[in-house]
From TrEMBL:
Name of this chain's protein: Uncharacterized protein
Phylogenetic lineage: Bacteria, Pseudomonadati, Nitrospinota/Tectimicrobiota group, Candidatus Tectimicrobiota, Candidatus Entotheonellia
Protein source organism: Entotheonella factor
Length: 44
């Protein structure tokens, strides 16, 4: 999973804040993806 942020780190927004937000966002995306896979996975 890749998360791209188009924010210039260290300019107006502190780097740690951007990384913390990105980590939360990726975790949430992963949870949604896992839920979707489990819901749509066909057991054979």
């Amino acid at each position: 999973m890749v998360y791209e942020s188009y924010v210039r780190l260290g300019t107006f927004i502190p780097t740690k804040l951007v990384l913390k937000r990105a980590t939360r966002h990726v975790r949430r995306m992963g949870q949604h993806l896992r839920t979707w896979i489990e819901k749509h996975h066909r057991k054979e």
